[in-house]
Amino acid sequence: MNILVTGGCGFIGSHFIEYFLKNYPESKVTNLDVLTYAAHPDMPKHLEILASGRYLFIQKDISDPSLKAWAKNLKFDAIINFAAETHVDRSILDPDTFVRTNVMGVQNLLAVAREAGNIRFVHVSTDEVYGSLKPNDPPCIETIALDPNSPYAASKASADLLALASARTYKQPVLITRCTNNYGPYQFPEKLLPLLIANALEDKTIPVYGDGKQVRDWIYVVDHCRGIDAVLQKGRSGEIYNISASGEAQNIDVIKKVLNMMGKSESLITYVGDRPAHDRRYGLDSSKIRKELGWEPKTSFEEGLRTTVDWYLKNTEWWKKVRGTEYLKYYQANYEKKFSSGNPKIKEVNS
């Protein structure tokens, strides 16, 4: 199979490429990524080493109008779209960028797929499009109404609707996956777990939004990649598939668990002002993908968390290379100025 992966230098996209090249030795992957701040500069070379001759990197923006002409004569069997602006805090500061990439970029890719012969298109979305659950609500199924609360979630929901509209209007073979919080190696250090591990390693403050009791549903990134592959290979066109390991946990409990693994004191925890419109709970029902496609998660939260912590402890140079970038300094200063409201210093902590 010859596939085009967009956003393949990001966290989940890079793991999917690595998984796909290893599990399909006859496959070829073209990775299209604009290399924003969240793409580690060493990732293109890392992926090329995995499968020389079967991997091609192209630096390009998915919202670039010239993309259709570039891809018209290329013979791809499928497109898997990971490319997205993802951090909720940044979407509050700069929603325009999220609309451009997450909405206009997806619309552009759908047109690319049609130009390439109406090839299979897998759009990777998020549980955040469903909005916040109440404590006693059942986990979300694929057919409930969308209720996004942040600019990020709204942009992803918009992309989902465009993808479904293309499936119905143009009869495109479009599939959507919606997943819970991913964790694992290579995640950019603005996200909760890598930020937590890096700060704890250096005995720095661990900022926690509000009371820290927000509930998130956690899945190890490789299990997510296996789910996307199952949808690519066996999913029904026009369908949505939730991917979840049913690993709901409060943020504060996850933070304390990691600190305990690292032998660090909980005194590092500092409660800060809550994020505007912060969703209280996410949770997905993944019965559909389990029953229809036979997918099951293989990695327990305890095992995956230990693997993740060990990786960051052994690869400090990886996250230090991007942690001190001018972009992160600019972002942090602007977020604090706009939303801290006199609270203790707020750093990047994602859902």
Structural description of this entry:
With 351 residues, the protein is an alpha/beta fold. It has a domain at 2-183 and 219-243: Rossmann fold, CATH 3.40.50. Helix content is 43%, strand content 16%. It contains 13 helices and 12 strands. It has a 7-stranded parallel β-sheet with strand order 3-2-1-4-5-6-10, with helices on both faces. It has a 3-stranded mixed β-sheet with strand order 7-9-11. A two-stranded parallel ribbon has the order 8-12. Helix 1 (11-23) packs across helix 8 (221-234). Mean pLDDT is 90; it is low at 338-351.
How would you describe this structure in keywords?
single chain; 351 residues; alpha/beta; Rossmann fold; seven-stranded parallel β-sheet; 13 helices; globular; disordered C terminus
- According to CATH, the fold-level topology of the domain at 2-183 and 219-243 is Rossmann fold
Q: Helix content range of the residues, please?
A: 40-55%
Summarize the biggest pleated sheet. 7 strands, parallel
CATH class group of the domain at 2-183 and 219-243:
Alpha Beta
Number of helices: 13
Provide the CATH superfamily of the domain at 2-183 and 219-243.
NAD(P)-binding Rossmann-like Domain
Radius of gyration: 19 Å
Percent strand equals 15-25%
Major β-sheet strand ordering: 3-2-1-4-5-6-10
Query: What is the 3D shape?
Result: globular
The count of DSSP E runs of length 2 or more, i.e. the number of strands, is 12
Q: Detail the poorly predicted runs.
A: 338-351
| End-to-end distance | 35 Å
